[in-house]
Amino acid sequence: MIPLSWYLILAAGLFCIGLFVVLTKKSAIGILIGIELMLNAVNINLAAFWHYYTQLNPSQTPLNGMVFLAIVFIVAAAETAVGLALIISAYRRRNTSVAGEMDLLKG
Amino acid sequence: MTAMQIIFLIVAAVTLGGALMIATSRRMMHTVLWLVLTLMGVAVLFALLQANFFSVVQVLVYIGAIAILILFGVMLTRRSMVDAGESLVHKNWWVVAVVIALLFAAIVISIQPWGAAHTPLVELMEFKEPISDLGEALVDPAAYLIPFEVSSVLLLAVMVAAIYIAVDRKGGKS
Amino acid sequence: MSFFRDPVVFLTQWLNGVLAGWGLPPAWVQVISFTIGGAILATGAMLFVTILIWGERKLLGRVQDRYGPNRLGPWGIFQSFADMLKIFIKEHITPVGVDLIPYNLAPILSVAAVLMVWSVIPLSMTMYGVDLSVGLLYFVAVGALGELGIIMAGWGSNNKYALLGAFRAVAQLISYEVPMVVSLLVPVMLAGSLSMNEIVKQQNIWFIFISPLAALIFFVTQIAEVGRAPFDLVEAESELVAGFNIEYSGLKFGMFFVAEFVHAFTVALIFTTLFLGGWRGPGAEQYPLLGFIYLMLKTTIVYFIAILMRGSLPRFRIDQMMDVNWKLLTPLSLILIAVTALAVKAMQPLSPWISVPVNIVLNLILIYLTQQLLVRYFKRRKIREVGSRNRPVARLEEPVTSTAESEGSL
User: Fold this and answer.
1) pLDDT grade, residue B78 (50/70/90)?
2) CATH fold of A4-96, please?
3) For C134-172, what is each residue's pLDDT tens digit?
4) B121–A3 CB contact, under 8 Å
């Protein structure tokens, strides 16, 4: 069936593209999207290793991987909510959502 | 090459293609729609890994909540109704691309010699996803009670913070 | 397994046998039989809904004191087929400046999002697409795709009215998802499973009799999710210009139309599965086909109750609609789930003869308290009158000064 390394390489690719998006996008929302991609790549890795570990120890029910996945989901949702609130607040004051133009420390 | 491998390759191509389109697309709105496609691909990957619960949660949380939230964010922070398709990418992007390609190559090369990475992931027969075990472990003090509680406090704090930050003090009635 | 006892399983096994006989590997046999099953299910759902549209129009006609469709065929029964034919041959108009991919993908996505729900519903004891262990969660997740379809339609149309309509629709759908998901947890707690099959099998007593409040909340939120009167602000034709689908024509509009009707029937189906015992009924275990008939009968009854509501209630204002959700349904469902969780946990060792009545009594107490609170609230709140009490006068005295402010009701 599918080797573990395929999943790992896919996750690495997704992570790298996410990093590229974070580093190159001008828009703050674009940066947020890149972070989501990176978190998803991490999730794929976690799920793949969870499956691998379950396969090695069929008698136990390993839960660490699932708990990690759940917490990554929670953190991702929290991060998006606060990030978008910040972006909208900044947009209201500066009328821009481009990260490079948000260059004042004072609101 | 088995049927599962073909399915995996198709899904992986869709996922990575969607991610690449995010990096290259010029309109913010299209970026988010490509993000939805990528998230969908990841959900299918979870299903391939027999993590059905997280596959569904991925669609529910990422597409149903996060992607739609980002869509709203994009629509609310446009400068005009017309999306001009201006260049959204930094001008030195190729330097970043080279560095990241090197990073990717480094990861792939470092995975190769590790023998366990080539274990084929077989379909677990007679396998019930331990959802009820997961639920019990999350509220068991001996297991994951504290991370669970901390993350719920985090969500509450985020809710308060998001409302506090985004509230319009000058213009609106709030 | 004889044909007459359970034709669907019989035919499936026969088909699998034939395919395996051709020398196909088992994985491909499975893929082919799932594809055929899905196609039959989707087509059957759409055709069934076509007939239901006729019933709905007939019933609405009676509510509004007219005949309804009565020209084509006996009692006008072929009217919706004629409409279908008409919508198929209409012209596709693509407005200037649309965003082509979202614009064309949106109708497909909204139909698909509804039809995908059917794959986890147990139509009879042996007849279901797949017994997903997280079936209910899947139902909620697929609903999110429908919202995405609406946003894509509103955005892709390149029309500000469509975009505003989409905003409004999605705000409504997302808001009503909160009490819906919370009230869904009640049957999950009672059955101890997220799988639809398991929930049906646990309903020796229908859950509507154990937790009527949860059923009520779920019913109301579902009507709001479908966007029908009194919650039809999504396409309030007298306020908005038909909402998010204004720029669509021909078959693409028809797909939104079909999606709405199939969605309405699907939520009735989900309601039946969760609260009315699904396919269960006398003799349904021996003859699964009988279970299917029971399911369809119950679903049709629920569906027609929703239609009667549609025919008899006026539309909410948008602030009223949000008030109903955030100030009434959400707190109520949260309290209900806390009460139900405590009751179910405390009475786990007891026999159902004690725990079920206690649950019912708790629900009734909650309903009574809510009703009392609402009555008090409305007594305390003065509703300001607009104009004078004796209205229809055409005299020229003094112009009536309108003191109407938009008041939050409830």
Assistant:
1) confident
2) Helix Hairpins (1.10.287)
3) 889 899 998 888 888 988 888 888 888 888 888 888 888
4) yes
What residues make up the domain containing B168?
130-174
Whether residue C24 lies within 8 A of chain B, CB to CB, comes out as no
Domain with C271, as residue range(s), is: 90-379
Long-range contacts of C47-52 (CB under 8 A, 24+ apart): C48/C265, C49/C258, C49/C261, C49/C262, C49/C265, C50/C80, C50/C81, C50/C84, C51/C77, C51/C80, C52/C261, C52/C265, C52/C300, C52/C303
Q: Residue B83: inside a domain, yes or no?
A: yes
- CB-CB neighbors (< 8 A) of B35 in chain A: 33, 36-37
Beta-sheet pairing, B120-121 with A2-3: antiparallel
In a domain, C320, yes or no: yes
DSSP A2: E
Q: Domain residue spans in chain A?
A: 4-96
Chains C and B touch (3+ CB pairs under 8 A): yes
Average pLDDT over residues C1-18: 76
Assess if residue B89 is contained within a domain.
Answer: yes
Nearest CA in chain A to B103: A16
> Which of C137, C160, C170 faces B68 most closely, judged by CB atoms?
C170
Residues B48, B107, single domain; the answer is: yes
How far is residue C156's CA from residue C309's CA, in Å, rounded to a whole number? 33
Counted domains in chain C: 1
Chain C closest-CA separation from residue B36 CA (Å): 9
Q: Are residues B148 and B87 in the same domain?
A: no
